[in-house]
User: Fold these one by one.
Assistant:
Number 1:
Amino acid sequence: MPADLALVHYPGASQAALAGMTEMFSHCARMQRREGMEALTLATVTADTLPAARLDAVILPPAFGNDDFLSPDPALVRWLRGQHAGGALMASACAGAFYLGAAGVLDGRRVTTHWGLEARLQQRFPRAKVNTDPILTRDGRIVTAGGLLSWIDLALELTAQMSSPRLMRELGRHFVTDTGRREQRHYRGFRPPADHGDTAILRVQRRIETGFAQALTIRGLAAEAGLSERSLLRRFRAATGLTPLAYLQHTRIQAAQQRLEGGPDPVETIAHEVGYEDATAFRKVFRRLTGLTPSDYRRRLRR
């Protein structure tokens, strides 16, 4: 049977994603007809034009340049909940996951979103299992994708599910896009929270961010903050979600990423510049946080 898909045009949705997914699924339908298969159908819907019939899949695209997704239309949320209860596959890219969360379909599910929205999504929907390392995550009938352009990965995944993996690969060749699995953590930046209101911890954060290349110690950081070591560790984690050591590692690796992207210096030199005496230890931390070796990162990200 043909698959019926709905692409939700909510307030603030990315126009590029709406148009791009429409074109990709239109080409998928052409390929299906060429193969003698029943073609999938895609309809763009709004909160005012929600179909009553049960669909095979509902897609929430990314948002662009706004926070409208934080205040979803109640009628749309109820409709999403009903489609999920009726067996529809629920899919989102980037901020579209907030609509799925509002509909209550992310509880207990592994889910991804844009890395910059990870903390807000987890805070708003604490029962969701949010992990922004992958570009794409599937958990049962829930498929979520990460970054603003992850609608491409999402369209490919849905093509594979609603059509066939072979046609998905052909679709990728037609649009000249990689059909292999990617990871969002290759591109993720480090945006530590600074609005927690703990001024002592803010001083420690600034000390790490300006002195990351130095040999910082918990004792020294605690002294600068006027705290005991135990209080520093407790309050730092409460404010930032990280230990001071993890915060230092993220800060150093972010500085290394910028150097790898912008210049030809050897990895060993960069490791030393950002505070690592041992280049092997630097490579291990870099790969753990980014999913790539420093050399692979340079090849992938540098133009």
Number 2:
Amino acid sequence: MTLLANPGTGLGADVEHLRRRLAPIAAQLPFEPRVFVHGAPAGGEAIRQHYFDEGPRDGEALLFLHGNPTWSFMWRALVRAFSDAYRCVAPDHVGCGLSDKPRTYPYTLTRHIENLERLVDALGLERVTLVLHDWGGAIGMGFARRHPERIARLVITNTAAFRSSRIPLRIAVCRLPVFGSLAVRGFNAFAKAATFMAVERPLTPEVKRGYLLPYDTYDHRVATHEFVRDIPMGPSHPSWSELGAIEEALPRFADRPAQILWGERDWCFTPTFRERWERVFPQAEVVRFPDAGHYLTEDAGPALVDAVRGFLERNP
């Protein structure tokens, strides 16, 4: 793939369309939408990837990476809190949020990492702090494995970047042929269920609307299903080797300042995953939120912001 257009330029119609899409939740997400274009392969179409880029361009970069079935919306409180002093970049993975959602596309871990590489290169981000959640952990550490010199700090929240033999039943059923597609894409069961299964504190109707806004049609839920299908549970899976390489590379970052923030009531990324991260990064600051679930940014609220702020200030 090649870059067709510089980010944020020559794309006025696309940006205006995104502003209209964001209008129903503008009060919650008062950021300027931006578009990066991944060039088209032979016989294909260019892919537009949405991202937010708030704060001073010469500030230290915080790179926020979401998972499934969320999007950059989940980082809104942290972006608001830190964009006065830091450059806060929060992309939507292709297929997610306000990014394009092509029907036929290799929604694989490797491709998501490659997309992130292009975006980071185009934005000229160096010495970034990765802020990771859910699939953002594997994608972000996949980027880190390829570009270790660009990683300054790590903020790790309810995620994994290593192989596991465990998959919760309620996620496993979404991988079943026919049923999985019907549930996830037909009824939006995965994203809707997450708005109450992934939190300990009920979301307001406005916040639920924000999480579900991009996933309003069968076609717009394609990546929600493909992310579930891309969970590698054995060597025969196409993403198994990529995740294995990421796992093997994790100890290289044991010299970087790291913070592990964990919602202890997460039924998917349980405290067992936190303990695994603690073994990988014994130098990390660990903050446990005993009453928070998977959507830590929602359940922990200002306490999460305060924890991250303290970490950044202690590790300039």
Number 3:
Amino acid sequence: MTSPASVLGVVLATTAVGGSALLWFAPTWGRVRHGYEILTAATVALLAWGGLASLSSPVAALDDPALERLGDGARIALLVFAIATALAAVALAVKLPPLVSRVLGGIGTAAGVGSFVPLAMIRDGLGGAGGTVQGLVELLLGAALLGAIWVGMILGHWYLVERRLSNRYMVWIAWTNVAAIGAGLGSVLLSARNPAPCEGLPPGGPFEQCATMFAPILRIGAMTVYLGLGVLALLALIAFFNVKLAREGGRSIQASTGMFYLAVILAPAVEFAAKVRFF
């Protein structure tokens, strides 16, 4: 890994893909006002555009032309993902049949997941541990963690709009969040097999360039792994309270939403720690 922009792009892209999957294929579909889908789809599309912008420069700057072509594949898939998701939100806003937006959302989600393949394949050319297979698993696990927490925060806020909405959907996302913590744990542990930032680079140009872009603490041994595990412990505690508060319903839903506020701040730190070792 030679650029923090690559890390940011991967984290934004995985958040968008995970959020999209939970939006279009969750039990909330058709039981919550479509304003919730419009809002969530809009944020997912923006996250996808952000990931695309962050990945465009660093991936294209890699010296190996083969890696550059693979990066183009990832960018094209992310572009399709962002456009399809935005169109799905517009279809709902102009009151087209809900099936239209759901099909567009499904196509976008498939394109987003598809973008993970060329991203993971880049690791083969860089000699990353586990190659494409492990890279793909790491991306999927990261998407599960970030997507669940992002959707949970938006859904919790939606209860302020639909005050009579059953708490069953908040309970569902709270338990989904518990499962997502397990996914995050897998993501961090797998990252331990990858080299720390700048590790293995020859002295001189590439190493000096990389060293100036990353904080020294991130380049010390397994420090990123310890950081990820520590923050995950906090997220696990939050997930426990989320389940308890969501099951109580009523005003406790607002408290659960507050917990998701904390989680949505902490979860990216976990994935930044894991994905700083990705390429």
Number 4:
Amino acid sequence: MNLSAPYTKPGGSVAQPRERIIAIDALRGFDMFWIAGGREVLLIAVAAFKDPAPPWLAHQFEHSEWIGFTAWDLIMPLFLFVVGAAMPFAFARRLEERQSKGQLYAKIIRRTLILFVLGMAVQGHLLDFNLATLHIFANTLQAIAVGYFITAIVILNLGVAGQLAFAALMLVAYWLILRFVPLGGFPAGALEEHANAALAVDQFVLGRFIDGTNPPYTWVLSGMTFTVSVLMGVFGGELLRSRLSPRGRVGALTAAGLACLAAGWAWDEYGGLPIIKHIWTSSMTLWAGGWCYLLLSLFYLLIDVLGFRRWAFPFVVIGSNALLIYVLWDLKSLNPFPMMSKALSGGLAAHCGSAGPFLLAFTAVALWWMILYYLYRQKVFLRI
């Protein structure tokens, strides 16, 4: 792998597998499944046998209040990571098609703008047409837009060594700002829910249109580490494109995952920077990225190396149209599936006792999955 040359053409010492890495689609679909009703299906199913659900399980499906990390906190970092993992393959394909850098930049800008506006529509209340409820920057799609935009520029102009150096610079710079720069009247090093440097930047830049959650998530300054999350996915994608043997790729991904987990833990434990998803701290970025690498390694081993593909097919279907289901499910005013589920199976659910809620939740998921399956069979994929 050429570590110094910018990503300007395919070939060289990097393998260019023509086949699609199914693990990437499956992992993307796995992530979307939990967002679009899978969480409810699992928790309701468990509650049917043990109500309430075990505290440890319920805890893992809730966001950490501030410091700490749960399985549910991994959903958004994994989304950003998988976007990055697909980028080396997408850019190689476009360069093989002889697209110029100018054409690539135009597509990058177009995709960034569409993602940002979709994020405003989904969670920023854009479609309310009411300035009082509008949040300009408050959604995962917008975090992806920022991370994708900066990452795309980086990988088009820097080799892998430069990309690694850039990622390290972003992590360290963000840590230094959070720990040692007083902003917005907050003292240097403040990492409280309503007092930290990232929040001060959001308050200054976004003003009245700031994220409305409590405790607030931060977005503008956190774009530095959003970018690193996407870049970590790029590094995973580059490993999958490398001339390493398939099992060598699994080993490299696993090693990267364990190294990131160790670094994130050490930064939290000894570096004075807790794992806080709300402000996307550098330690959290590494910790979440470590789990992302391990998941990609596991999916790649099972699906693409060992050939166990049937179990992953439902996730592949979801992953092939992940953006569509994300927008449909999260845009509450347009989400028809719970209502359709009640219309189709509500009568039966009323006679199923404790299994009734599970039937309703499962039917909602089955409905949107069948739509995605139809689109998959017709080779209709939403691309931007």
